[in-house]
Design brief:
The chain has a single domain, classed as 3-Layer(aba) Sandwich (Collagenase (Catalytic Domain)). The relative contact order is 0.19. By secondary structure, the protein is an alpha/beta fold. The longest helix has 30 residues. A 5-stranded mixed beta sheet has the order 2-1-3-5-4. It contains 6 helices and 5 strands.
Length: 211
């Protein structure tokens, strides 16, 4: 287990910031989901990345509601989309039966890249005694990392291809898994590049409109 990536090494700052829009199709309990977001936020703070979470409606009636106005704003490369799916929706996707989530691999200039979490598989682990909010938070962090730094896994920490029982126990007990030092640097750099790409695109559009 790697403990190199801690807040002592990379202090979070507002220049490295990712916004995550959350679509809770599985109707995960709001309290549990808030706990999971806090877990994921702390994981990313420890590598120098701030996260902002925007809850979005999953019903047609809510799309135009003022309560979800932030969900209608344009998205840039640093804006990600998290979809939490129930079993009936997960079954329509091609994925391993053991996978807890999946992530879209996209160019760093591409906005609204998606990550998916399968809630029923989190529920299965919770039924075995693992803490659902912490497992969910770690799955979110794992899939966000795939969006930012690619499909590869590592032999240790959060980015292991498969978490062992010991890993799941550590997560549940708060004995956290971590990103490696190299992954921490890659994550922060990836977010900064996405922000730069977004700023450059806005500048390009402004310049074109002024002509």
């Amino acid at each position: 287990m790697n403990h190199l990536a801690s807040s002592k090494h990379l202090a979070p700052s507002l220049d490295a910031r990712s916004i995550i829009r959350v679509y809770n199709y599985a109707r995960v309990d709001p309290g549990l989901l808030e706990g999971a977001k806090k877990v994921a936020a702390i994981i990313f703070e420890n590598v120098g990345v701030q996260t902002a979470w925007v809850d979005c409606s999953v019903s047609p009636e809510g799309f135009q509601s003022p309560a979800y106005a932030a969900c209608q704003s344009p998205m840039g490369p640093a804006d990600l989309v998290l979809r939490i799916l129930p079993q009936r929706m997960a079954e329509k996707l091609r994925s391993s039966e053991e996978a807890l989530g999946s992530a879209q691999l996209c160019r760093e200039s591409e906005p609204a890249c998606e990550l998916i979490v399968f809630s029923s598989r989190i529920d299965d682990l919770a039924s075995k005694g693992y803490r659902a909010e912490r497992i969910l938070g770690y799955v979110i962090a794992h899939e966000v990392a795939h969006v930012l730094i690619g499909a590869g896994h590592s032999d240790e920490g959060i980015m292991r291809g498969e978490w062992s029982r010991h890993d799941l126990q550590c997560i549940s007990w708060g004995l956290a898994l971590h990103f490696t030092k190299a992954q921490s640097t890659q994550l922060r750099s990836a977010v900064l590049r996405r922000i730069t790409s977004s700023v450059q695109e806005v500048a390009r559009q402004t310049s074109s409109a002024a002509r």
